[in-house]
Amino acid sequence: MGNATLIAHDQVPILATDPWLFGPAYFGSWILSHQIPDEQLASIAACRYVWVSHGHPDHLSMPSLETLRDKTILLPDHVGGRIRDALVADGFRVHVLPDRQWVPLSPRIRVLAIADAYQDAVLLVDLAGTLVINSNDCNDHGWSPLVRREAKRHGGGILLALSGYGDADMINYLDPDGNRIPPLAARRVPPGPAINAKMKLLGATAFVPFASLHRYQREDSVWVNEYATALDDFGIGFDPRVGDLLPAFIRYDCTDGSVHRLDPPENAVEPQPASRFGDDWDEPLTDGDVTKIAVYLGAIESLVDVVDSVIFRVGGHDHQFPAGRGTGRSVRFGAPRHSLMSAVKWEIFDDLLIGNFVTTTLIGDWPTRSLRPDFTARVAKYADNGRAFSLDDIGGYLAEYRGRARFDHVQYEMLRRYSTGVRRAARRVRARVSPDSRLTQAGRSVYARVRR
Fold first, then answer.
1. Best label site of 232, 278, 354, 360, fewest CB within 10 Å?
2. Terminal alpha carbon distance of the chain
3. What b/e readout covers 5-24, taking b as 16+ CB neighbours within 10 angstroms?
4. Of 210, 265, 214, 203, residue with least CA distance to 234
5. Which residues of the chain have pLDDT under 70?
6. 287 burial via Cβ count (<10 Å: 0-12, 13-18, 19+)
7. d(CA 357, CA 352)
8. Domain boundary assignment for the chain
9. 126-184: per-residue pLDDT in tens?
10. Omega before residue 265 within 30° of 0, cis
11. Which CATH class is domain 7-274?
């Protein structure tokens, strides 16, 4: 149900994952695409356990968690422990699951958590022998071999994962003249082949659309709805020989494999002014604000070889902050003061960007033509959430994750280096070839086969 909520029952409701039950996320930008029916809300309220995969507000919704204070909050074992410490300090009952170990929750339900170095997590749920692979919006950083092994032991699995055209990320890029750059989501590449590839990689035999069921409501972000994925779009290009594509919002009976569609009502999008969420695009930064931003960015020493300067255009004025040296790159963010300073105060810079009302202009030669991977990882993943601020910090941080499954990470690192080379070649091809051409489809198929 909802955006990324799985409800697991054993006689009674036992577990609910990532409960974003009501209200907006990302500074008012996101809303749930569909309502959560009363029956499912009651089941969530009756659960004994609540799993929170990571800190994004469409997964860690504090207003929703406030209604679930009597539950035991299950967390992945993330390096830095930021979410654990914050929830414990706020009075929640928290249990950190041991990494990569099965833990029973009831006579017929057990779970296995895998913490990812990008501060996301996978949760495997074994319901009386049926394996559910809840990877939400977690990309593989060394955990896929374990998931494949467990899927093989279970004879396959049902994969719940982010998919679609690609709006669930920061896609609001401008060129130096202030014109919006059409996002990759504008190409509307059929989601099916990517879903098939992920199923093959993880050994899944069925797929349910998940972690991508939202819409945009702010007047300055509602334009992104053009690139959102409709429920019927997930199946475009899907190959049923790989497995079953199940609809979103279902009840699945693990005793007989039957599927019942719940068909919740769709939420209407009513554009909301930025002022409703405290933002005034004409409001300038104060001297105190500038100092706070300088302290925030200055602490992230790992940006030294990523970007020379970070510029914030707020209220029509540019404020430049040095970050590194010798890269020839800088980045300019156009943001309203209130949301920007909230993101700086709470150290949740990723949330500011994913709302897609903030604009991003890349200046200089950015190899990937985006903030990924280095800027996003070092600010949002390693520093904000992992509390790793310098290159030395990051080295120790990543070593701790690698140490939990060394052989799996060796496989991943070999694959990553291979994939990097392929992606560079693919970018050159995509610039010249239609995404719907036979060459593109053949290349995608070959890549998926070799990756598997």
1. 232
2. 30
3. bbbbbeeebbbbbbbbbeeb
4. 210
5. 423, 427, 431, 451-452
6. exposed
7. 8
8. 7-274, 278-397, 405-451
9. 999 999 999 999 999 999 999 999 999 999 999 999 999 999 899 999 999 999 999 99
10. no
11. alpha beta
